[in-house]
Specification:
Order of helices and strands: EHEHEHEHEHHHEHEEHEHEHEHEH
Radius of gyration: 22 Å
Shape: globular
Bound molecules: 2-keto-D-gluconic acid
CATH superfamily of the largest domain: NAD(P)-binding Rossmann-like Domain
Number of strands: 12
CATH topology of the largest domain: Rossmann fold
Structural class: alpha/beta
CATH class of the largest domain: Alpha Beta
Strand order of the largest sheet: 8-7-6-9-10-11-12
């Protein structure tokens, strides 16, 4: 009999990861099932492992349909799309892929910031459409050097961003749950006071209930007419309706967004605005990051099923 563990794959990963998973596990490809709940009723009972990504995570109803589940390997660092408390309660182990994507996610934040401030995408269109030859120089843009940048969430990605922004000669400040020891950047106790102090606000915090719609209309108003918002973490952290109105009314200067509240849906109003640069949740989407993330998914699953310690475990809340 086939004694390989049964693994539910919730979203596809790079081909080499898929090949290794197909080889080492009896796999179930949930994203290919037209009726996912019927599929889980038929096959859920034997599934011991899950491989999923940070954005899709593991929905409560899927987790509930997997009574034998023991291990969840996340292809990403975001933990907002999986119930860690319930994982702890059921004794399910969880792994993620920290560190390997940090610099690439920070680079995407920097790329979006530069693109918005210097109107890189608009300028590209200006050249391609022949407007340069027809109408002359494009409208002037904004200098970043010497301006103030505020980082919401000074974790691994936030710190990598802070280093990049310092290299642009920006003044960097941050907010987080509490002031962090040993950081050279100015601390603000909350996001509203940070927004009042800075020209650019960059969201690098974890998603989930504790940060939901934290960037609301007051914060956007405090950031102001010349202000720029960048988000490379989770769309849930920004009140998207408030963002659209602030951008439309000119109350906010611009935005660079890699993530959205209802991906892959994007508010149509954003598509009409020249002061916005959009990306399809691609901050960790370099071949290099995705390869290393894929390797960590494989290594964590392998370690778990061999009874060895996980290379990159997620710390779960204490089970009550
Ligand atoms: C996704 C992410 O996991 O790390 C995260 O939390 O959101 C991303 O890296 C990635 O898009 C994989 O699909």
């Amino acid at each position: 009999p086939d004694t390989r563990p049964e693994l539910l794959i919730i979203a596809p990963m790079m081909p080499f990861v898929m090949e290794a998973l197909e080889r080492d596990y009896r796999t179930h490809r949930l994203w290919e099932q037209p009726d996912a709940s019927a599929y889980l009723v038929a096959h859920g009972a034997g599934i011991q492992g899950v491989a999923t990504n940070g954005g899709v995570g593991l929905k409560a109803e899927v987790m509930a349909a997997l009574p034998a589940l023991e291990m969840v390997a996340i292809y990403g660092v975001g933990l907002d799309a999986i119930d860690l408390r319930e994982s702890a309660r059921r004794g399910i182990r969880v792994s993620s892929t920290p560190d390997v994507l940090t610099n690439d996610v920070a680079d995407q934040g920097l790329a979006l910031l530069l693109a918005v401030a210097r109107q890189v995408v608009y300028g590209d269109g200006y050249v391609r459409s022949g407007q340069w030859a027809g109408s002359g120089e494009m409208a002037l843009t904004t200098r970043l050097g010497g301006k103030r940048a505020g980082i919401v969430g000074l974790g691994r990605v936030g710190q990598a961003l802070a280093r990049r922004l310092s290299a642009l000669e920006m003044d960097v400040a941050y907010t987080d749950r509490a002031e962090l020891a040993g950081q050279p950047y100015a601390f603000s106790p909350d996001v509203l006071s940070l927004a009042r102090e800075v020209d650019v606000l960059i969201v690098a915090a974890a998603g989930g209930d504790s940060t939901r719609k934290m960037i609301n209309s007051d914060v956007l108003a405090a950031l102001g007419k010349g202000g720029i918002l960048i988000n490379i973490s989770r769309g849930s952290i920004v009140d998207e309706d408030a963002l659209v109105s602030a951008l439309q009314s000119g109350q906010l200067g611009g935005a660079g967004l890699d993530v959205f509240a209802h991906e892959p849906k994007v508010p149509p109003a954003l598509l009409e605005l020249d002061n916005v640069v959009l990306a399809p949740h691609a901050a960790s989407g370099t071949r290099e990051s995705r390869r290393e993330m894929g390797e960590l998914v494989l290594d964590n699953l392998e370690a778990f099923f061999a009874g060895e310690p996980l290379p990159t475990p997620v710390k779960l809340p204490e089970a009550k």
